[in-house]
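INTERNAL AUDIT FORM
Audit reference: QA-55
Scope: verify that the stored structure record matches its stored sequence.
Auditor: D.O.
Record contents follow.
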Amino acid sequence: MILILTHLIVFFHVQDKQNDAPPVPPPPQAYTPSQGENRNESELLAEWLRLTRERSEARSKEKTLVIRGQEIELEHRHARLQAQLSDIMSSAPDGRKSSEEVALEGRILREMLEIVERKNSLAAQLQAETQRWFYVPSGVVIALVFFLVHYLLVYFTLAWS
């Protein structure tokens, strides 16, 4: 009987000490599928592939927009140079020009030619970016087929067992 009373006293003493202690916040729990949506592996893989594709498409669109922005800047610069060149050429109606005017016309024409060359290289970059979405290397296709076959084999093996 004394032993039981001793245990009860110790039990209540421990309980009092626990109640006096400041509350300890529960430890943060890592994400587990049971807490969130309960989805299987194939749904997660499909979502990952969709998100990866969307990210790639967004990067491609960004590259395309940057290239088109550069093209527009070059077109504006080309138009300003063309207007400047026509002003210089119309300033001397009799065809007599100073050496400075002739040198300025040459510089403007060279810069216009460089702009045309840069626009052509940007057009090639844009075409390469567009074609990148239509060309899938055969190695990637083969790897995807092997992955799909492996996944199906694992799935059916688990389903039949």
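Auditor finding: record pair retrieved intact. Residues 55-135 form one domain.
Action required: none
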